[in-house]
What does this fold into?
Amino acid sequence: MANRQSYTVLVGYPKGGGHYTAAGEVVDLLDVQANALEAAGRVALTSALKASAATAAAETQIKAPKAAVRSAE
It folds into this structure.
C-alpha cells in the first residue's frame, strides 16, 4: 500500500466533491498529490513546519536574554 504523509494546508484548495480544504488543516497525502500541491505553495510537510517552528522558538529564547542585557546597559 502507498505511504501517506501528513501535510499542513497553507492555502485552501479543492479536494473534490465540491469540498475545499482550509488553511491550517492537516491532511494525509500521497507523494504524487503532495508534490503538485507543494510546488503550488498550497501545502507543507507538517514535520518540517514543526521543526522550523521549534528552531524559531529556540532562536527567540536565545535572543531575548541578549536584548535584556543590552537594555540594562
Remarks:
- The chain has two helices and five strands.
- The mean pLDDT is 85.
